[in-house]
Amino acid sequence: MKPIKMPPLADRETLLQSPPEALVEIILAQQKMIEQLIEEVERLKSRGNSDSQSSSKPPSSDIHKRSEKPQDSPDLETLGKERRKPGGQAGHVGKTRKGFGRIDRYELLRPQQCQECGGDAFMEAPVSIQTQTVAQLVERPIEVVAYQLHTCRCRQCGTLEPGRLPDSVVAGQSLGVSLQAMLVWLGNYGHLSYEKQQEFLFELGDIVVGTGTLQATNVRLAEVVNPAVEVLAAWVKQQGQVHVDESPWLVKGVKEWMWVIAGAGFALFHAADTRSRAELEQMLGKSFAGCLISDDFSVYNGYPVAAQQKCLAHLRRHFKKVIKLKHGNNPQLGQVFLDLLDEAFEAHRQWRDTEDVPTYRGWAQQFKAKVQTALNRWLPQAGYAAGLLLRSLRDKARQWWHFLDYPEVPPDNNRAERSLRLAVTKRKVCGGSRSMSGFAQTAMLLSVIQTCRAQGRSALKFFQRALIAASSSDEGQPMPSLIPCSDT
Prior knowledge:
Largest sheet: 5 strands, mixed
Structural class: alpha/beta
Radius of gyration: 31 Å
Order of helices and strands: HHHEEHHHEEEHEHEHHHHHHHHH
Mean pLDDT: 88
Strand content: 5-15%
Shape: elongated
Helix content: 40-55%
Strand order of the largest sheet: 5-4-3-6-7
Number of strands: 7
Number of helices: 17
């Protein structure tokens, strides 16, 4: 909220001698100030009751406001439909029952003793066969191998030729490629601290590994994937549309910023000192030739782009707050625009399902007229908070409603927010980073993990291939790529 400007104070004698026009101006200024104060009080009251549905708070914060007493079950007769029970549903075919996609070995189990007569001789051919497929941990999931590299003399030319390590082992490193990839995945996606990774290795493989080795592994993987992330960063600047968002990140107790640029099949994280335009220009260049999808943060407003789409989900939350301002016509005004936003989301969802362009364009024309009519009616009656939103809709119409003319552009910034959620969760678990270099390494590794997830690829296999390519002198081992639809 903007600072409230107090009208100049005047004593009684001065007011008695003032002309009527001056008194009217004083009264109007005081009315405006009172209106702003009332809306500020209502906003502060509603802030304490905000949740994940009405603000940017995560759903995990809702639990603090739940009652400690169990609620009465709703009357199913009044609801008119049966309430769905939580958990697995009767008759639903689970995914695990369809199998795991492979069988590593078969184990034949024949009867050892007849339960009827005690005999132990059975016919060779079975009467029936029942198969149960089970995934289970093997006895030694972590194998400790000592590789002895023998140097031998060639019988033909006499050259001394040493034995070579397999691709799954890097010279001088005490952890195999697959185990390093697993530990980095657990630390950056599973949010396990180095101490918990130590316990994991002891529980799973009965081995003790120092935290220094685990930290060095994290640093090594970040350096290895750096070239692939840089290629992705250059590729992102050429895309037709990107989603952008940012979140604070603590480094040695100082607030820094984690940025993310996301799109179909990629998520690029950037460790930054500030939340300023300079960071956006570093990621996308001085200007961007595509469509920038973001929230209404001021940094995005003046950035030169070909097109911009602001997140309607954020706007929807703002209008829900307006509805909670009970004074004046705020509830009616907020509900009108909330209904318009819900209609827009539903229409775009139907377009995604059918891709019926003529129907969508016909609806869009009618919708624009509805919005303009609503603005003309409610803008003169809007209070301070609602007036800010309505003036933004009027003055930045091309940025709020770009998706009406270009339905391939989504009306929200969910892709960036969902990608950033991994970083936010990690920050809450670990508390931030101890150095800027560690912060940058986290951004590198999260870029790989989230991009692989967006492409339906295995991040562990990507890390393995990157380690093998970085340590191999064979040009036939190319560095894997993060570019969507890339062969590597």
